[in-house]
Amino acid sequence: MIDRRCLLGFSLAAAxxxxxRAQTPVTVAAAAxxxxxxxxxxxxxxxxxxxxxxxxxxxxxxxxxxxLQGAPFHxxxxxxxxxxxxxxxxxxxxxxxxxxxxxxxxGRLALLAPKNSPLRVDPELRDLGxxxxxxxxxxxxxxxxxxxxxxxxxxxxxxxxxxxxLARPRLVIGENVSQAVQFALSGSTxxxxxAHSLTLVPAVAAAGHAxxxxxxxxxxxxxxxVLLKGAPLAARAxxxxxxxxxxxxxxxxxGYTPPGA
Length: 261
Known about the structure:
alpha/beta; D-Maltodextrin-Binding Protein, domain 2; 2 domains; globular
């Protein structure tokens, strides 16, 4: 829950955005892993007087390609840093190549398995290794390592555990990490490596077991947000809203570590 002081902080952050309601609608390109948090923040923003938002969720890597080709997004909420840097280097951020965005939180990877899975969920992935070898795991879900940051980190975690070559022929690849969660719980796989934030969603928590993978197993998931070229004032208001200290409690509740925490 958000207390009154936090809501007041949100109201102040959103105050001038209400004047932009008649202007271009704000379109937000957001990584799939932040969907629960961004939906909550968007509702708070609009309740506090901010302009209406159009939220589009997908893979950060796919968004980069779309943004560089001129897709009409105003704000990019990414699942890592590199994708924001690529957008900046392509000259598509509001402040030009020098505008590298801001970190709004640090994400984590989790091992997820459905409740009827033969895979025992442990942080160090020891039983995953045993299950890949003894045949208990024949299919395993991750997001695309080619364009989804959580897929890249899943590959790194499997490599760290010495399991990548063993797991690779059995991988079921999701377009983004939300789809990887669906695959992990579908019954067609025995589990997957996904965003910790999505394992906290009540429906996911009810359907499976999850364990937080040690941070040392993969590169940091420093997640950045950046304004895109031509963004209206209302987009600036939502940007400031989600990086404000008042938003930290929301990010933390959804499994992220705010910068400086």
